[in-house]
Amino acid sequence: MNNKEKFTSKVENYLKYRPTYPQEFIDYLVSEVGLSRSSVVTDIGAGTGILTKQLADKVRTIYAVEPNFNMRSACERYCDNAENFIAIDGSAEDTTLPNNSVDFITVAQAFHWFDREKTKIEFRRILKPYGQAILVWNSNVQESELVKEHDELCRKICSEFNGFSSGSDIGSEEDNDFFKNGQCDCRVFENNSLLSLESYIGSSLSTSYAPSERDENYKPFIDGLTNLFNKYGHNGDMVLPIRTYSYIGEV
Predict the structure, then answer these.
(1) Distant-in-sequence, close-in-space partners of 34: CB < 8 Å, separation ≥ 6
(2) Is 81 exposed, middle or buried (0-12, 13-18, 19+ CB in 10 A)?
(3) Dist CA 191 CA 32 (whole Å)
(4) 3-state DSSP helix/strand/coil percent for the chain, to nearest 5?
(5) 61, 46 Cβ separation under 8 angstroms
(6) pTM
(7) Closest CA to 179 of 104, 251, 107, 93
(8) What is the pLDDT along the chain (251 residues), one digit of tens a residue?
(9) Torsion sign across C-alpha atoms 14, 44, 174, 33
(10) Alpha-helical segments (H) within the chain
C-alpha cells in the first residue's frame, strides 16, 4: 500500500479521536512566528483538517492540500464553516499551487511521509520570499511507562509498526538540512490527552500501522489496549502523556 492510501480506512477514527494542537502552540504562531489575518497559508498533508481548522480564523486564506480522497472529503466537512478554506487534491511534492503564493506552509503529523528532496523543491517554489515552513508533531512521551508498554504492544501485534513518529530528530545536527542554512526555531509544548477507553482505542486504531477489523491481530490489539487502560486509567479516564514538537524556518 502506498503512503497516499495508508489512512483511507482510518478516516472516522482519525477525525474523531486524534488530538488537536495546544493553544500555546497556536498563540506562538500568531505572537512570535507572524501568522496574521493577512497571511496565506497552505496546510500540506492536511488529513482530516485538525490543524487546518485551528488556523482558519487566524489567517486570510488557508489551502488544505491532501492527496487521499477520503481524508480530503472529511477535511471539507470538518472545515465547511470556514469561508477562507480551500481544499486541494495535491501532495507535498506537487501541491498545484502557483509560484510564490503562500506566506506559510504548515505540515502537521505528516512530514515523515514526504519525499524530502522533492518536497524542499516544491516548498521553495510556492513560498513567498522569506516565507516559512512550520513542521509539527504530537508525540507520545517516550519516558512514560504507559507509552513504553503501548510501544511493546504495537511491536508485538502490529506488523507495520516502526516506532512512533515524533519529528524529534528534525532539529538534530545530522537531520536539519531541510531548513535554509540548517536553521530553524525548535519548540516543545505539553499536550497531554485525557482519554476514555473508547477514545484510547479509537486513537490507536487511527494510526497507519493499526490492524483492521479483518486482521487476525485486531482482537489481540484491542484486548492489549484494554488491559493497558485498566492498568493506567482511573475512574474511567486515562492520561496519555503527549508533547508537541514544532520546527519553523525558511526552506
Answers:
(1) 103, 104, 132
(2) exposed
(3) 19
(4) 40, 25, 40
(5) no
(6) 0.91
(7) 251
(8) 444 545 555 688 888 899 999 999 999 999 999 999 999 999 999 999 999 999 999 999 999 999 999 999 999 999 999 999 999 999 999 999 999 999 999 999 999 889 999 999 999 999 999 999 999 999 999 999 999 999 999 999 998 787 765 555 555 554 578 999 999 999 999 999 999 999 999 999 998 889 988 899 999 999 999 999 999 999 999 999 999 999 999 99
(9) negative
(10) 11-17, 23-28, 50-56, 69-78, 116-126, 145-157, 197-205, 218-232
CATH (residue range 3-140+164-192+242-249): 3.40.50.150
Is the Cβ–Cβ distance between 28 and 248 less than 8 Å?
Answer: no
Q: CB count, 10 Å around CB of 62?
A: 28
d(CA 140, CA 150): 10
In one-letter notation, the amino acid at residue 20 is T
> In the 8-state DSSP scheme, what is residue 231?
H
Domain range summary for the chain, segments of one domain joined by +: 3-140+164-192+242-249
Alpha-carbon span 30 to 40, nearest angstrom: 13
